[in-house]
Every structure is written in C-alpha cells, then in structure tokens.
Amino acid sequence: SKPRVIFSGIQPTGIPHLGNYLGALSNWVKLQNTASPSDELLFSIVGWHALTLPQDPQKLREARMDILAVLTMYNPNHTELAWIFNCITPMGKLRRMTTWKSRLATSRNMGEEDAVDVDDGGLNLGLFAYPVLQAADILAYRATHVPVGDDQTQHLELCRVIADQFNRNFKGMEKLFPLPIQLNTPSKRILSLRDPTSKMSKSAPDTSSRILLTDPPSTIANKIRSAVTDSIPGITYDPVNRPGTANLLTILAACNYDNEDVQETAGRYVGKNHGALKKDLTEAVVELLKRPREKFEKLRTETGYLEQIAQAGAEKARSRSEATMVEVRKRVGL
Ligand code: ADP
Ligand code: NA
C-alpha cells in the first residue's frame, strides 16, 4: 500500500485530559506501534492555536512543557501557509464551524443555532481563522491521514475543502495537496463531566469538568462522584435525554470493554444505579491512567531532555515542510 503521512496535533493549553487520551494520544501510541516502516508519523504541539484564547505567557510556557512531556515541535512554515490559505477560504465556511459557533454562543449568551451572523462579540480574528491554521498544520506536511477525535471531523472536512481549492486555483504538474482523511479513534467524543452537552476540553474554566492525566486516584474519584447525570432511576444509554449517563457509559466502554457498543455496556447495568456505575468507572479510569501518569510525572521533571527533543522535532518539521512551501510559494507567485 502507498506510504502514509500521518499528522496530528495538540494545543499546549494545559495538562492533557481523558478526552485527549482516549480520542487522540492513546491512538497515536497505537499507530506508532503498528505503522509500517514506510509511513511517516508527525505529532505536533500547536502553540499558535492556543493564542486564539487569552493566555498568560508564563503559564503557556509551563503548559508547553506539560505537553512536551507527552510529545513535541515548532515550525514557522505553518503560519505562512495559514496566511495563504486564509486568502482562499470563504468566511461563510468558517462561520459554520461548530467550535466558532459555540464560542460565539458563550460570548453572546445564546444558543448555537441563533449565533449565526450576529456581531462577533469581542472574539478575535485568530479564533475565527483557527481551523485554517489547523489545515496548514496538516497540509504543510502534505499529510494523508489525520488521527484525531470525533470533535475534529468538521475541521478536517474544511481542511479538504481548502486543499481542493488550492489545487484548483494553483495548478501545477500535479495536484499539490492530498485530501487528508480522518483516522478514526475507536472511542467517541468524551463530554464534560459538568456540562455533558459540551465536550471535555482543556480550556473549560471549571477544572472539575475534566479528568487530567496527572490526577491522583482520589481526585479521579471525586470528579466522577460529582459528575452531572440525571435523576432517572436505573442505567440506560440515551445520549439525547441522558447525556451525562451516556458519557459515563462511553468512557467505561472505552476503558474497560475495548470500545464495545455502548448499548452493551449499558446492558451490564440492568437493575443497577449511578452509584454502581460511578464506582466501576472510577476503578477503570484509575487503572487506565496509572501508567501514563507515572511516565508523565517522571518525564516532566526532565526539562533539559524535553527541550532537546523539542529542538530535534522542530528541525525535522521545518525541513520536512520546506519542500511543500517552496512549491506553494512558486505556485502562488511569491
Ligand atoms: P482541547 O480541545 O481539549 O484543548 P485539543 O484541541 O488540543 O484539545 O485536541 C487534541 C486532540 O484531542 C485532538 O485530536 C482532539 O480530537 C482530541 N480531543 C480533544 N477533546 C476531546 C474529547 N472531549 N473527546 C475526544 N477527543 C478529544
Ligand atoms: Na480544541
């Protein structure tokens, strides 16, 4: 089969959480172990994305080291390519991005449905154009496969639209960009423990809404105990009417049952209640995060080593993407 270029990234906006782990990081490790020797794997810390929300520089530096303890790279070619993409991306497409709409809804205190075409409520241009930068992250390496969580499906669709638009506008001997496909993670999108209608996210202000890779067992237990569910007796998988309960089942299916059909996981709880589910879930998450947490704590103290890895990664990333950029500049006439 054709060699794959596999690219994915994570923002340095805080310690990775269970959603990042199930939706991305654990899958990246699996890919690393199963990829064929001709595949190229690139995993990036995408710092420019973090700047689309207000960040304290010192905290951002710390958070970068947090993520570096997990993986690494820095490459200015991303921003140059993003600018070129900005110039071929219709604003209407960006306005339809769920991430933008939900930020807008939050800032305007209204539902996502209504938050189309309203005044942009103090949000910045970087946040609006964020999915374009993400497309540049991916296409700078002409990546063919992108292992990301379900929350990124829409962004990846936009990435293909941009790649295709560039290919049409700037024809050469061959199409410059592949249309990258999503490498699905087996687990579903993990939701916030406090507000199970939104995704578990590093940037949510309420830290009890997410389980961190570094949380000790007692913290994991507390967060799961106080996870918002519902007052319906018994356990059923009903994501529409019981999103909190459904989320706990999704996480349990991912941790303990190899991502079995969540209905089946629910079937294990016939005649049981939330208490039983939360107890089992706590044990499962504690067990799942035990080794990643130990590894993280150890690596996190080795800042010199982490910087070294970051430099090597940046080096590789820059030279790898330069070939793309030379061709991009030529085709657009710069
Ligand atoms: P966050 O939104 O928490 O800041 P990132 O944007 O840095 O996370 O995403 C890093 C990776 O983690 C992406 O592949 C993304 O799809 C995945 N991811 C983030 N949040 C979740 C979630 N709640 N459920 C599943 N995967 C997630
Ligand atoms: Na995100």
Bound molecules: adenosine-5'-diphosphate, sodium ion
DSSP helical segment count: 13
CATH topology of the largest domain: Rossmann fold
In terms of structural class, how would the helical and strand content be classed?
A: mainly alpha
When the domains are counted, the total is: 2
Mean pLDDT: 87
Protein name: tryptophan--tRNA ligase
Keywords: Aminoacyl-tRNA synthetase, ATP-binding, Ligase, Nucleotide-binding, Protein biosynthesis
EC number: 6.1.1.2
Pfam family, one: tRNA-synt_1b
Tell me what the structure shows.
With 334 residues, the chain is mainly alpha-helical. 53% of the residues lie in helices and 5% in strands. It folds into two domains: 5-185 and 303-332, 3-Layer(aba) Sandwich (Rossmann fold), CATH 3.40.50.620; 207-299, Tyrosyl-Transfer RNA Synthetase (Orthogonal Bundle), CATH 1.10.240. The protein has helices spanning 18-34, 47-50, 57-68, 77-86, 91-95, 98-108, 125-139, 153-169, 217-225, 243-256, 262-267, 274-300, 303-332; strands spanning 5-10, 40-45, 145-146, 181-182. The strands form two sheets. Strands 1-2 form a two-stranded parallel ribbon. A two-stranded parallel sheet has the order 3-4. The chain binds adenosine-5'-diphosphate (ADP) and sodium ion. Adenosine-5'-diphosphate (ADP) binds next to strand 1 and helix 1. Adenosine-5'-diphosphate binds next to strand 1 and helix 1. It is found in: Mitochondrion. It comes from Lentinula edodes (Shiitake mushroom). Keywords: Aminoacyl-tRNA synthetase, ATP-binding, Ligase, Nucleotide-binding, Protein biosynthesis.
